[in-house]
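Notebook, bench 3.
Goal today: get a predicted structure for ABC-type multidrug transport system, permease component from Euzebya pacifica so we can plan the truncation constructs. The sequence was checked against the plasmid map this morning, with no discrepancies at the termini. Length recorded as 440 residues. Pasting the sequence as submitted so the record is complete.
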Amino acid sequence: MKDLMGRLRLSLRRIGGVSRKELVELVRQPAMLFVLVVGPLLILLLFGSGVRAEDPAVRSIFVTPPGDEQLAEVVRGYADSQSERLTILDVTDDREDAMRELRGRRVDVVVVFPENPIEAVEQNDRATIEVIHSFIDPLESQAIRLFTRGAVSDLNDILLSRAVEEAQTQAATTLEEVEGLRETLDGPAGSVLMAQSDTDPEDLAIVLDDASIELEQLIEIDPDVVAAPLDGRASSIGGRVTTSQFYAPAVVALILQHLTLTFVALARSRERELGTVELFGVSPLREVERIAGQAVAYVLSGSALAAVLLAAVSLLLGAPFRAGVGTVALVVVAELLASIGVGLLLSRVARTTTQVVQGAMLILLLSVFFGGLLLSPERLLPWAQPIGDVLPMSHALELLRDSMLRGLPLAAGPIATLVGMAVDTIAIGSWLAIREEHRG
């Protein structure tokens, strides 16, 4: 029994020694504790404080029928009342010009008002307001549908109010005329006027018949159509996109960026820890050649991974390639090169493999929150949007969604930024590596 208790005490003492050693190691690495604890909390704090409390205003153009000034006046009044939700860039009668602005991504929504809505009501049918947008995010599309319903309801109220006001004015005028005629006919001059009247009874009958027909048409109109003469229909120029298809490019861009920069940084850090850098220093191999060889290797391996991922999202999720496979491949290569450059910079900041993993995880968190995976950049405050601009994924994601889901050609701004990021990061990383080699 004593031997058993002795062995137990020794075992507990050894366990305590190991625990104490691990705690001391943690205390001796305050930088690691800071990165592991404060880093994620800081990212969450930035994200929480950088999200807009309200939806951003949508850039819009209202299109009215040519020559219908009365409807255009109603639309302008409604546009002024929606300044908080919409940024009205123009109220025009040129539909083709408005659609060019929409396809060029210079506006988000084009609202087209119908021609001759009164004729549609007379035919017992509602006139349709078209709301055409460029959003492919299912949440944004749902918001546009809700906006369409609200806009139709508001405009119906405006038109109904104006119609009632005009009817009351017309009725008051008619009543005054009738009262005046009645007083005239009831007076001494009434019999003289009747005797001198040359009005044909048949003409009076025609007038009465026309009035009866108009009254019958008014009675036959559905009261619901009279109360709500307008209807709405929302559509997207990018076609219908499911939730899984919308997030597929984001997942592909995130995986490619994270794996590429992590593998590059780990490879460079491992060479430094194993002493391979010193061997390369005395060999004919130059640092630039070594970086070029690594870049080629990771572009090839990343391209193979991208092919597998894109094939999976296409076959399993039905993600389209509306702008062609070649356009998507160009974006993938540009993102891989930019991620290689970020990996080179990370390997210069992080001196050990542990620090590389920690840094890669922080970049992953930044990409999830600020790279466009959870929320579009427009839903972030202006000061928070530049955080995502330094990530290759954010620019690649915009290009992939345009090419895959919208079928648009590559936008000059994002592709130039992505290529410039690749050139700058690889150049800076190579320069730092060459400088360290010369110092060694």
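The two ends are 62 Å apart (CA to CA). The chain has a mean pLDDT of 79.
Flagging this for group meeting.
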